[in-house]
């Protein structure tokens, strides 16, 4: 049976078909024209690294080294295609599965595992990378992203007349988040304030176990219409098309023309997290169908056909992923929990009587055991 | 106050800055001063622009500062707090007006899971100096959801500061100090006291607006009236009731000390415990339901730190474990002068 409604192929922008053949689309071609073989090899390399790191983190969780891992397997094109369209002074608000986007923001991938090893709640300096912390409350960050975009506008970083200086926000969330009140409020605030923001929906077809048909009767991109926000629906496993539509959307927002919503239609090839079991709610046949549309394989076919993926480049990327895997394992296993009293740090920016008295009491309590030890 | 009698020239200067204001007027003047001081201070809320807010607390500010700094927002409380968080990440201090206490709950998630925790989860890298103004508590004969006391629901969340002024002077000072504080502050305005008048020295606070001093000040209780037999602890709308009770009790030979907490988070436990040790008898008065409330926390802390000084159990006077009742019941539901005096009698005769 043909998929309908939110799972249909309706209106998908595609510049690379599943066999890796370039599709001619005069509307979107200008936004992909700058993608030289070098740029495509870079995309293939970043997607490959993302996937290798993802597999390494999954293994580390299985070995008990991480409490949880949230795989982005299958979503590499959506993430690398969009992430590589971001530049200074843009700002990114991820959800919690955007490891590929993090890579494009120069975040050291092993470092992001402190969150998943249970050492801290946020693993990187968001300002230094223009990449906000992961947000686990679904859709809550869409409002922060909108407010940030409104402030960029106030700060003269939009439509300044010098396009290289202009910026915008890109905010990632999933199909499930589109049902949240916060996301709908973000669309309202962005619309009436003409905020420079791109809402990037990765429709990976599942909110844990619930298919997108539990969130919507229509393709998710259509949600934008009621808010007066332009939208585009793109094949999320086509890195060239994703990059092109994100280029367009960011330029639109940076130029002061207001928000855009992109729906990247893709597939979550792993379970929701390492705690989930996708075999309980979807078929092997469905997974196999989407494996045939693998985003990395698709780009590889294209580059192969062009003769632009030489063996030495592949070997270098393989060596790079192996080194990253080794460094990831070693880094994660080397981490020890910070000193216990640091759990009282940064609750407030200025001292708070309750926190300070509890910290002091807990310190005395801990010290009392050390004192007993010294008597023995 | 007594000090100023010995410094005649200072008195003249200070007196020139003293004006009689309502509490609403004092908050308005405090907002204006903060906005004049820092162009990155913005006001956000529903109907706060040309209308001046449903209580007129922002009256005239839209005219003088414009719609970019006094922003009428879409009618979505979560959206207001959430976008203000994003703006704070670029250095803007938004002062949000939630129209009524009972309408804050759509923003409960943004306030508790996002605003309160961002500094912590970012390892101190991000600070969100928002102020959330909430006209709160009852006594104005309103329809439902317009008279709620919400403080305990938020006091349970680490990362927030919660304060409530009881006088125009405190309202003027504390709104500016809340804006100066780098932490998120919930500023609870006792709406039944908006039109109470008092003298406001508009100069005094100026030297206390750096982050550390401002934060310390809004967390500090004050002894509103000294006494020796019973401590009555109140904040926001119940301070006036407590002072009235002290007057009446004094006529009956009982000396009541009134402690105005000013801050619910943090609680100024040292001031509370000092007073409890001095009098040995404590009554806590708030409009919020007593069950699981601020009074319960105070009773526990006083028990822990002043047990052997107590001559009677700590009593609480407050709302019942019912929804806030319809307006014709509120006079009896609220902690009235009679109920406070009854509690004072009970701790005296224990």
From TrEMBL, chain A:
Q: What is this protein called?
A: 2-oxoisovalerate dehydrogenase subunit alpha
Q: Which cofactor does it need?
A: thiamine diphosphate
Family, similarity comment: Belongs to the BCKDHA family.
What Gene3D superfamilies does the entry give?
A: 3.40.50.970
- SUPFAM superfamilies in UniProt: Thiamin diphosphate-binding fold (THDP-binding)
Q: Does the keyword Lyase apply?
A: no
Q: Which residues form the Dehydrogenase E1 component domain?
A: 45-324
**Enzyme Commission code:** 1.2.4.4
Instruction: Give the keywords, sorted.
Output: Oxidoreductase, Thiamine pyrophosphate
Q: What does this protein do?
A: The branched-chain alpha-keto dehydrogenase complex catalyzes the overall conversion of alpha-keto acids to acyl-CoA and CO(2). It contains multiple copies of three enzymatic components: branched-chain alpha-keto acid decarboxylase (E1), lipoamide acyltransferase (E2) and lipoamide dehydrogenase (E3).
> Which organism is the protein's source?
Demequina zhanjiangensis
From TrEMBL, chain B:
**Keywords for this protein:** Oxidoreductase, Thiamine pyrophosphate
Q: What class of enzyme is it?
A: oxidoreductase
Q: Which GO terms describe its molecular function?
A: oxidoreductase activity
Pfam families (UniProt xref): Transket_pyr, Transketolase_C
Q: Which InterPro entries match?
A: THDP-binding, Transketo_C/PFOR_II, Transketolase-like_Pyr-bd, Transketolase_C
What's the superkingdom here?
Bacteria
- CDD domains per the UniProt record, alphabetical: TPP_PYR_E1-PDHc-beta_like (cd07036)
Cite the Transketolase-like pyrimidine-binding domain residue spans from the record.
Answer: 21-196
- Names of required cofactors: thiamine diphosphate
Q: What is its EC number?
A: 1.2.4.-
Keyword presence, Oxidoreductase: yes
Write down what this protein is called: Alpha-ketoacid dehydrogenase subunit beta
């Amino acid at each position: 049976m043909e998929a309908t409604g939110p799972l249909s192929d309706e209106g998908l922008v595609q510049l690379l078909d599943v066999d890796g053949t370039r599709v001619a689309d005069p509307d979107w071609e200008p936004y992909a024209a700058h993608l030289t073989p070098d740029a495509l090899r870079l995309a293939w390399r970043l997607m490959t690294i993302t996937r290798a790191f993802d597999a390494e983190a999954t293994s580390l969780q299985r070995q008990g080294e991480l409490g949880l891992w949230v795989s982005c397997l299958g979503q590499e094109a959506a993430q690398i295609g969009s992430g590589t369209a971001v530049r200074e002074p843009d700002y990114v608000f991820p959800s919690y599965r955007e490891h590929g986007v993090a890579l494009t923001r120069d975040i050291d991938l092993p470092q992001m595992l402190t969150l998943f090893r249970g050492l801290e709640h946020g693993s990187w300096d968001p300002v230094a990378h223009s990449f906000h912390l992961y947000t686990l409350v679904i859709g809550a960050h869409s409002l922060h992203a909108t407010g940030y975009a409104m402030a960029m506008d106030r700060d003269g970083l939009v439509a300044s007349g010098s396009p290289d200086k202009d910026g915008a926000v890109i905010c990632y969330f999933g199909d499930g988040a589109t049902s949240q009140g916060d996301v709908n409020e973000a669309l309202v605030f962005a619309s009436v304030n003409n905020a420079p923001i791109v809402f990037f929906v990765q429709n990976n077809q599942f909110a844990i176990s619930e298919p997108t048909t539990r969130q919507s009767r229509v393709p998710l991109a259509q949600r934008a219409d009621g808010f007066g926000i332009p939208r585009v629906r793109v094949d999320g496993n086509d890195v060239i098309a994703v990059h092109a539509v994100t280029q367009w959307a960011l330029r639109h927002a940076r130029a002061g023309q207001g928000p855009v919503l992109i729906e990247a239609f893709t597939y979550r090839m792993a379970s929701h997290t390492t705690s989930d079991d996708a075999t309980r709610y979807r078929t092997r046949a469905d997974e196999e169908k989407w494996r045939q549309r693998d985003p990395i394989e698709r780009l590889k076919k294209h580059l192969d056909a062009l003769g632009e993926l030489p063996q030495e480049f592949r070997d270098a990327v393989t060596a790079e992923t192996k080194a990253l895997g080794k460094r990831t394992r070693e880094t994660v296993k080397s981490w020890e929990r910070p000193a216990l009293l640091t759990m009282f740090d940064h609750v407030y920016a200025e001292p708070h009587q309750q926190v300070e008295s509890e910290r002091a009491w807990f310190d005395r309590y801990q010290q009392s055991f050390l004192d007993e030890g010294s008597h023995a | 106050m007594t000090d100023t009698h010995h410094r005649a020239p200072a008195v003249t200067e200070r007196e020139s800055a003293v004006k009689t204001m309502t509490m609403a007027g004092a908050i308005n003047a405090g907002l204006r001063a903060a906005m004049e001081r820092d162009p990155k201070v913005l006001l956000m809320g529903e109907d706060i622009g040309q209308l001046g807010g449903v209580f007129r607390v922002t009256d005239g500010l839209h005219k003088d500062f414009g719609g970019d700094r006094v922003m009428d927002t879409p009618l979505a409380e979560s959206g207001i707090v959430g976008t203000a968080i994003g703006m704070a990440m670029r250095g803007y201090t938004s002062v949000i007006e939630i129209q009524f206490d009972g309408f804050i709950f759509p923003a409960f998630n943004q306030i508790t899971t996002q605003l309160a925790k961002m500094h912590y989860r970012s390892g101190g890298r991000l600070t969100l100096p928002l102020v959330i103004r909430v006209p709160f508590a009852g006594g104005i004969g309103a329809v439902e959801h317009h008279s709620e006391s919400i403080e305990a629901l938020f006091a349970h969340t680490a990362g927030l500061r919660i304060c409530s002024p009881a006088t125009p002077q405190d309202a003027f000072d504390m709104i500016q100090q809340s804006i100066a504080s780098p932490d998120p502050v919930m500023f609870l305005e006792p709406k039944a006291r908006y039109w109470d008048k008092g003298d406001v020295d508009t100069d005094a606070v100026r030297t206390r607006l750096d982050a550390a001093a401002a934060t310390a000040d809004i967390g500090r209780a004050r002894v509103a009236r000294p006494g020796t037999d019973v401590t009555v602890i109140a904040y926001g709308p119940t301070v006036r009731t407590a002072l009235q009770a002290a007057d009446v009790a004094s006529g009956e030979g009982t000396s009541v000390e009134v402690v105005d907490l000013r801050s619910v988070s943090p609680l100024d436990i040292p001031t509370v415990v000092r007073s409890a040790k001095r009098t040995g008898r404590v009554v806590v008065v708030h409009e919020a339901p007593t069950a699981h409330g601020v009074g319960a926390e105070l009773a526990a802390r006083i028990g822990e730190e002043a047990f052997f000084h107590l001559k009677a159990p700590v009593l609480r006077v407050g709302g019942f474990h019912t929804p806030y009742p319809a307006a014709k019941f509120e006079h009896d539901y609220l902690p009235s002068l009679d109920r406070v005096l009854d509690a004072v009698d009970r701790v005296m005769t224990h």
